[in-house]
Amino acid sequence: MSPAGPDREAPLCITCGYDLTGQPIEGLCPECGDPIWRPELARLIAGGGWSRAWGAFLFGLLSLPGMLLFGIGGVVLGALAIYISSGIERDYLRGGISASARHLSGVGQVLGFFGCVFGLCVGLLWLIF
User: Which of 45, 105, 120, 129 has CA 20 to 30 A from 68's CA?
Assistant: First the structure.
């Protein structure tokens, strides 16, 4: 267990992933020497990724009934959910997104995948029959 405790995520360096627990925010990372506080970090924290996480989730959720529109709705909405979720995963690895937002977007990614797959199947069935 990390010193940060089980209920709180440890702050990580946005460059190298070093655990910055106990380091002053105006200092440098002991591992890579980069500044701990950066303007892009403020942007990530301000948004927290929640709006994009909800977007990925809702696009994924809507891709399931969207596949009934000749399959194209499921493919388009599912692809959007997967694309948004991959950006959230990248930001999470940099330390700018909370784990909860990451998990919500992950659910959207899975729903989007199923919407894409079933949308393609429905589209093929429409073409065949």
Answer: 105
